[in-house]
């Protein structure tokens, strides 16, 4: 019965190590996705520490790949030292992922304040040229999120670009269509996106942070199962009596 339990735990453990390798790739992908998305929205953020959860999750992914390799070798060979190392590393990774979840919630709560404090400045620095990073960022966000202005398209009337251009229009990126019919003119507001960008940027960034949080939570739960199986194998092996060869035969008087 004990041997059956060990075999079952070893089978589950080997399977979990394969999952860890897949998890390593997924964690690195999620971290890279956060970096790429942050690059598109970085003008709406002043706090670079928002990227800390992404940095940690990429590091955890790399460590998890190595952990899976150690776990597979230790499980197959039933190495006491290897399995102990495996459990310790998994515990460290688990604690790190808990930290990622906490940091994710902290920075998710700060997203709205960050965007609110910087978005007006970014819109005011818009000049409509491709060489201007703020202009590229705003045009990208308005096309991607299908929005216009901060709260709505009328916010453009308070910007320096609108006052200097004096053509009673908003950027083409506010247009619902790019077929040439829409020129951004405020005399045809029905051709413009009606929703403001501020709320949508906040929503997008909060969604990204939730991806990080749920990814970390999911794989933390899997690692708990991995630690449990490794501990079962270790405990049963430590209770098993050492193997003694059976001696047959003898001398007779």
Automatic annotation (TrEMBL):
The keyword Membrane applies. Belongs to the tetraspanin (TM4SF) family. It is found in: Membrane. It comes from Amphiprion percula (Orange clownfish). This is Tetraspanin. GO terms for cellular component: plasma membrane. InterPro entries: Tetraspanin/Peripherin, Tetraspanin_animals, Tetraspanin_CS, Tetraspanin_EC2_sf. SUPFAM superfamilies: Tetraspanin. The keyword Transcription does not apply. PROSITE patterns: TM4_1 (PS00421). Regulates the proliferation and migration of oligodendrocytes, a process essential for normal myelination and repair. It is a multi-pass membrane protein. Keywords: Glycoprotein, Membrane, Transmembrane, Transmembrane helix. Interacts with claudin-11/CLDN11 and integrins. It holds the Pfam family Tetraspanin. It comes from the Eukaryota. The chain crosses the membrane at residues 12-36, 48-74, 86-107, 208-235.
């Amino acid at each position: 019965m004990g041997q059956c339990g060990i075999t079952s735990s070893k089978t589950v453990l080997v399977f979990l190590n394969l999952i860890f390798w897949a998890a390593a790739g997924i964690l690195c992908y999620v971290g890279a996705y956060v970096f790429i998305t942050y690059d598109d929205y970085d003008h709406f953020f002043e706090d670079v520490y928002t990227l800390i959860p992404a940095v940690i999750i990429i590091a955890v992914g790399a460590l998890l790949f190595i952990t899976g390799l150690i776990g597979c070798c230790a499980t197959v060979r039933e190495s006491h030292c290897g399995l102990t190392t495996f459990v310790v590393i998994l515990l460290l990774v688990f604690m790190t992922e808990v930290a990622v979840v906490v940091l994710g919630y902290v920075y998710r709560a700060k997203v709205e304040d960050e965007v609110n404090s910087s978005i007006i400045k970014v819109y005011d620095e818009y000049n409509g040229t491709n060489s201007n990073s703020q202009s590229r960022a705003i045009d990208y966000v308005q096309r991607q999120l299908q929005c216009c202005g901060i709260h709505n398209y009328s916010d453009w009337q308070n910007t320096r670009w609108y006052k200097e251009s004096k053509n009673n229009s908003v950027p083409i990126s506010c247009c619902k269509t790019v077929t040439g019919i829409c020129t951004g003119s405020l005399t045809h507001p029905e051709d413009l996106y009606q929703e403001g960008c501020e709320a949508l940027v906040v929503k997008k960034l909060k969604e990204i942070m939730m991806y990080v949080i749920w990814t970390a939570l999911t794989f933390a739960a899997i690692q708990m199962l991995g630690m449990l199986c490794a501990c079962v194998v270790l405990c049963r092996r430590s209770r098993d009596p050492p193997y003694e060869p059976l001696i047959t035969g003898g001398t007779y008087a």
